[in-house]
Amino acid sequence: MRSLALAAAILVTPSLKAQVQCDNDTSNFVSLVDLQTGYYLGLYQGGLYPGGSNFLPASHRADGLAIAKAIKPLDTLGNVDWENGKVIFAGMGASTAGNSWNHFVDIVDTASGLNPCMRAINACLGAKGLDIMIDTAVNGWYWYDEILPKIEYYNSSRYQVQVAWIKSASKADTILEFPLFPNAIADKYEALMPILLDTFPNIKLVFISGFFYGGYADPLKEFYDVVVEPGSYWTNFAVKWVIERQITGDPDLAFKGPGRRSPWIAWGPHVWADGMRANEWDGLQWNCEDDFAWDGGGYHLTNTGKKKEADLLFTWAKTNPVTRRWFLDGPQWNSCDPDGRLANGQMLSYGDDNYVTAEEVMLYPSPNDGTFSIKLAKSHTGYAEVTVVNNMGQQVYRSTYDSFIANKNINIRLEDATPGIYFLNINLDGNITTKEFVVK
User: Fold this and answer.
1) Which residues, other chains included, contact 293 with Cβ-Cβ below 8 Å and sequence gap of 6+?
2) Considering only the top CATH level, what class is 349-439?
3) Which one, 37, 67, 175, 193, has the greatest CB density within 10 A?
4) At 277, is the secondary structure helix, strand, or coil?
5) Three-class SS of residue 393?
6) CA dihedral 139, 142, 143, 145 (to 10 degrees)
7) What is the per-residue pLDDT for 84?
């Protein structure tokens, strides 16, 4: 067992200069996204989700999509307000989360094509980890004296926070052994979820990320043992395990029904890579000299590094099937108008023909080779859009229509389709129905 505290003699040695350890540019650990169905230490399976998969299980994904579809702009009292309401997307954690989130906010504030009702707000607090975030059982100062004033500064309220991204750990976890350390962090995330519900009554979705590479950690900095590998690597197992607990039915993480104790949770962007040894899955790597501040302890990034993590956040939010529904612009968000309008001024109506269930959409053949047909069980007049996205959340097909005729074939051909799972999205005046299919 390793101790969290550094020897006092090391901390006060005047002849040593604090700096990151750029020679430690690999740890030889395999990222979860590359490990997949393989095992760490021969016992603990990789992948972001159960079964060694990097993709949301179908049932959990369907629940997340249903919840995302229910997100609407709210006023400061939590009432639906299509004219002046907001969908607050809050970043939470310590400075390691807040610094990158600030860069993410800068990107969001200048990007086009995003939901005009959505606001990204920094709700992070430096040097405060999960142990402090869950201390509200005693006095609640963290949330009510520190975090809520941050939200109110932007003329917003806790009732408007519906989505959160969190990246944190716990400085109180001193047992740096596997699996004790990641299990302790997972326990704290589980304890945090009902506190989030109490603090933000309308929060619906929470996305969690583990930490990036910790091999460059400065041995003279406090909490070096937590950051240095495998400490940072293990935080990703903590995220994986708390999400698995919810997926497998942990009652303390129930996110629907009368026993609800948690928002729906899933992975945010996975940001760990083995230093300069890039992930095979996504090509991500962390360069000490470019990405890490020389005096930042190996856990504070340069502006280049912060921008890198912010770009990962932005790409993830645009492409993740559960986030893009409320993150991107669409007919239902136009000017936050209560009636809704398209860019050309066309009014949107919301009658019964504006929604079809997955069972009312026929897709055949399935599996297919990328060429297939669809037809709807009922007609629709008004704006309609058909898109197809792949497992990476990348759009590979899009077409718009003025109407659908019941039981009339619509032929679709995906260019250069590779084998895998795909998702057909049918948007009828802002109501989206998704159907999964396979390309062989």
Assistant:
1) 20, 300, 301, 302, 305
2) mainly beta
3) 193
4) strand
5) coil
6) 90
7) 85
